[in-house]
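Final report, results section. Input specification for complex C-07:
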Amino acid sequence: MLEVQNLSMRFGGLLAVDQVSLDVQEHEIVSVIGPNGAGKTTVFNCLSGFYKPTGGTIVFKGQEVQGKPDYKISRLGMVRTFQHVRLFNQMSVVENLLVAQHRHLNTNLLSGLIKTPNYREREQKSLDRAAYWLDRVGLLDLANRDAGNLAYGQQRRLEIARCMVTEPKLLMLDEPAAGLNPAETKDLNQLIVSLKEDYHVSVLLIEHDMSLVMDISDRITVINQGRPLAKGTPGEIRQNDDVIKAYLGEA
Amino acid sequence: MQDLLYFSQQLINGLTIGSTYALIAIGYTMVYGIIGMINFAHGEIYMIGAYTALIAITGLATLGIAWLPLVLIVALICAMIVSSSMGWAVERVAYRPVRGRHRLIPLISAIGMSIFLQNYVHLAQGSRNVGFPALIDGSFRFGSSEGFQLSLSYMQITIFITTLVCMTALSLFISRSRIGRACRAVSQDLGMANLLGIDTNRIISATFVIGAALAAVAGLLLGMYYGSVDPLFGFIAGLKAFTAAVLGGIGSIPGAMLGGLILGVAESMTSGYLSGEYKDVVAFGLLILILLFKPTGLLGKPEVEKI
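Structure output:
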């Protein structure tokens, strides 16, 4: 469903991403790994429309999306999280999920003022969906807490829930396990697999936690210094000499 | 007893003026909360609201309609519609085309907008004071007939009640409604709200429109209270309301309400106990003190550096 060909991103004299290609099929978890500064997040920023790539094509569900603004890309069903948590901290947990469904609740001001049956029904539906996902990520008890007051691991899960209420086709997670303890990482692992198995969402993952990557990825793309280094299944990547060299340095 | 009555009189006058400052200040604070910029044409929008209300009242009088509640409601609705359209237009003309540029650029285009609107009204309505009919007459009086009499006019009561209704409606709108929710999300993280599929342009327009509608309410109320309007009507009121918004903490809606009331009371106490000449000195002196010692205002949150 996502096909990236020869993606390049140049910042002045710095070629941050050089001819990277990758693809994500339906119901698949693909990971992008690489040493710090390899250009993984830059790839993400190009895909999600934060940067306008200087070369290459990005095709999502048969449509070329490179250079399109971020909100258009997210409306096509490609949503992302960030390395640092970006919740609406002064809004409650449930409001964070409701506001993400704003677009789906497309009603006008008048029907909101007089609360037509149609409006109520949609409000109720989005509330139900929010409650469902809060329950799914184990935050239902905290629904009325301010998002900013949640523990870090809870904020991470809320972010994923907020992506899921928008009913995406492709979920892009930028280091979701960063800062989580081993138990939380294990929960996250199960959650991501379940998103694929139970909700038929494809996942594109950037992650440094190798145990997580090796456990859940169907395929892995390795980038080093902006250039593609290797591609393959977790088993193949583990054996790849180039990858070992890039991570451990030349002997 | 005399002293207490005199003090209460100043307090009532201050709260009356202060609550209208608060109504105007909300427009500044909401726009700042969302796009981080001051809408310098807001005072003019308030002035246009007052003029529109006056035109509507005159028009109804010519038609021979004199039933007070009807006149007030029609004037209010006309003022709100015209001012809201102006607020919407200001955003489209002076802000949206230059959004994302250096901060000074929209500031200058907004000042240009303000000068344009002021001069347009000069041309269209003349530059002289125009009398505003005092539709709501009479007052309650307390105190002995020989000493100081405390007066609470029906107009002042109208101002309190209208302001209270508007503030309550606004608070409910922001906290409960779907658009209010989106407004809060956009003000916290515009980029993220955009990414989640919220039409941020519409939300930004909505804040200009809501602010302008409240300014129109203030325009009608203050027009009747002062008894006249002129094209510079919005200038000082705009500055005062801006001061109120900064005093309470720019970006915070409860802050704008509190700031307006404090400023109004401070002014009327100065007029009452010192001299009317000093009231602007005190108002803007207060602004300088706040900026020196608590730049985030009374209820504002410290600016967090966004990464």
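The interface with chain A takes residues 177-179, 181-182, 184-185, 188-189, 191-200, 307 of chain B (CB under 8 Å). The longest strand of chain B covers residues 139-142. This concludes the modelling results for the funded period.
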